[in-house]
Amino acid sequence: MREGYRRLLGRQPGLSVVAEAGDGEAALAAFAEHRPDIVLMDLSMPGGGGFSAVEAILAGDPQARILIVSMHQGAVFAQKAMAAGARGFVSKSSPPDELVRAIGTVMGGRRALSTDVAQEFARTMVEEDPTTGLTPRERDILLRLMRGMNGRAIALDLNLSSKTVQNNLSQIRAKLGASGDADLVLKAQRAGLVPAL
Asked: What is the pTM of this model?
């Protein structure tokens, strides 16, 4: 697999492979020696694995650009990799041009996902979005809470009684399994609910 990637990247203008590693420890040593512009990292490696190597590289150089190339297509792997600090995630089953495109995207300062992983990500978000069960009024109240408004301000803004707003907030907390308003906002943010400015 590495040989195939090396040939693919060697044919791209402006790209060259400066080092290769077969395990996490060798990857750290190669990064320290060569300081590449971008690192392609597999998650399934001996010597601590890819996640550990990503975290170790970023601990030494927080600006390092790391693109995960993995046999795993699940959104959970992509989420975990991004949380660890990777800038992109491409599955090994993606067409070669997706890897090249992802490298350009990450080098341009943006995040990259291969099409199959992005679709899995979107499907998971839709299926797991806990805010889809909220009524339009509950969603309006939650959006205002996320903008930093308190119950009284929300009541004034929506022309509702404070009691109605508090009752709705209780319902929202119950539906989202939130322990309080701060937890409620956090869960809504994780679900991708963004308040209008």
From this structure: 0.63
